[in-house]
Amino acid sequence: MKRKDGSKSAMRNRAPVYQGSSTPKVKWIGKIERLAWGGLGVGREEDGRLILLSAPLALFPGEEVEADVRWKARHGEGEVLRWQTSDKRRAPSGCPVARLCGGCDLWEAGSHAPDLKKLMVEDLLRRQLPDMLDWAWRPAPPEAKRHRIQLHWGNRTLGFHRRKSHSIVPVQACPAAHAVLSAAMPRLQEALEEGALPSRPQRWELATGTPAEHVFAVMEDGRAWRLEPDGWHPTTDPITHTFQNATLRHRAGGFFQVSAPWAMTAFRQTFEEWDVRGNTLFDLYGGVGLFSGLLQDRFQSSVLVESEPHAVAWAKKNFESLGIAGPCHATDAADWIEDGLGEPEDVILVDPPRAGLSPAFTEKLRTAKAGTLILVGCDGAAFCRDVKRLAPEWRLENLAVLDLFPMTPHVEFVGRLKPC
Ligand SMILES: C[S@@+](CC[C@H](N)C(=O)[O-])C[C@H]1O[C@@H](n2cnc3c(N)ncnc32)[C@H](O)[C@@H]1O
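ok -> structure tokens follow
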């Protein structure tokens, strides 16, 4: 390890002993040993203490960096300031505000971003599910773009939140978003500046369907406008997503997969590979019925459970238009589920929010009688915890990790579990 002035003597004095809630920031220069789950680079102090480093433009293992580090009781945490050496795969960023914007972390990894994400997943699995040696990685194709983006308007500026801050980075376009959303950003800015749309400071969502034709702008209170050649028009129309001749609709501003066409392809491929089929699909935390729709030709019926009333209303309409037999329940999945859910020919699919399964819900799942359980999770750590909690009764047979959130460290875990 080198000193900042280039001398090679040890920097032991740069790692002060933890003395309370906050220690001063110190400069640290060293090598990124590996990438950890969550996108952090791992460095090591001479005495063996680990340092977790974040960086705006991707970190490659082996790179030497200079960072500001604060020491905690047993480890350091810091932010990379500059690179002393850089990996030859590092590429010019495709986004002009990549260093400032809090939206993406991996722009300078370019086409190698999925490789870095795979390393992060490997790190998590090595520690949390060490027996899961055989798993499928589905990297995002270059055309996978966001069909929903969250913008912020304040101080007459439209943009994204600055990295680790709530201030706004002004943006005119976003290369991670679908081109129609990117092109709509100056139109939204113009309408807010002119007062053609409510101009109080707040969050705005821009969203489009599949294929990406119409653009919707949605305010925090749920009111929506559709972009037409002459400007923004109030609308209550749904957003539509068509995949393999099946169309799903949802309220503008409601939940749907962010990179919708790529997500639908990746899930469908995964289910086909595992030959997921059966009598009844229990689509729990089902949203507007994405999984019931994707799997409609593989089940006799679906039972959807979802707590958000607007989503359930659209799920019912989607079931009707797709000809899916079965009820859609507007309730808390943990209140709805009973002991012994399903029969051996049935499949339970659970896709909870980021925090994963509650202990009470997990206990009910452990008594389920269905022959297959599919667990979907957008936080890998919560997913691994839930797999371990289910382990006495359910064994993880297949795991696929889908790169549904390109240029960020986030991924989607999908597991197929069988009764033990
Ligand atoms: C990750 S989203 C998945 C939605 C759907 N499976 C999809 O992929 O489009 C999680 C869903 O769970 C719903 N949800 C959150 N808490 C819930 C609860 N306690 N009971 C039932 N649904 C819930 C949310 O409204 C959201 O639609």
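The CA atoms of residues 129 and 390 lie 13 Å apart.
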